[in-house]
């Protein structure tokens, strides 16, 4: 059984129509690259009601309900334009960096597809979330490339997301489907305020075709255990 949010389809459809119309007009009012569109889609979806379905009948019902709701359609169009203006005004450098050939993935290709890996880092003395630490995600001792530049590695834990880290590794090609492989993952945490810390774990994945929705949806979530750092200069953490 698969849970689907009808609004994802509607927002992406509306967004693509707006971007294509802008491109055809020659005005180039908006940044219409794939990365810009994805950022705008997230912007819109975070501001409208979500409508989830698990069956064809439920999808048909919500589809009819959406078509009979002109105000919601207007809201989606308005938010798409608002999001495009915001993203275009920022125009971050990684919007072009992601288009480099080595970042491309082939929809339908065979890969080891990683989940979204997340966790928390806490002060081992006070048990409060830490900030100002860098976390490296490594496999077989090597720094791993993330899906794109918006998912940095190393990941810097900052004050607006205290104690929280997330990694979305780029899928690794496989020669064939249904191959099981165990990856030895290493999280290295570096900070002048805490003692050096390394956490190891194994992640077993099975290769398979890469879905077309990978750019929007990670293949599930992997919540790691809480990690505890000891402040630098403390000889006995129990004191």
Descriptive keywords:
5 helices; Immunoglobulin-like; four-stranded mixed β-sheet; alpha+beta; five-stranded antiparallel β-sheet; 239 residues
Note the total helix count. 5
The rounded Rg comes to 21 Å
* Termini separation: 52 Å
Q: Based on DSSP secondary structure assignment, what is the total number of beta strands? A: 14
Major sheet size, sense and barrel closure: 5 strands, antiparallel
Order of SSEs: EHHEHHHEEEEEEEEEEEE
What's the overall average pLDDT, rounded?
84
Annotated CATH topology of the largest domain: Immunoglobulin-like
Tell me the count of domains.
Answer: 2
Model regions low in confidence, pLDDT < 50 over at least 5 residues: 96-103, 212-216
Instruction: State the name of the first-level CATH class of the largest domain.
Output: Mainly Beta
What would you call the shape? globular
Helix content: 25-40%
Q: Kindly estimate the percentage of residues that lie in beta strands according to DSSP.
A: 25-35%
Named CATH architecture of the largest domain = Sandwich
Question: Which class do the helix and strand fractions yield?
Answer: alpha+beta
Describe the fold and architecture.
- The protein has five helices and 14 strands.
- The protein has 239 residues and is of the alpha+beta class.
- The chain has two domains: 94 residues, no CATH class; 125 residues, Immunoglobulin-like (Sandwich), CATH 2.60.40.
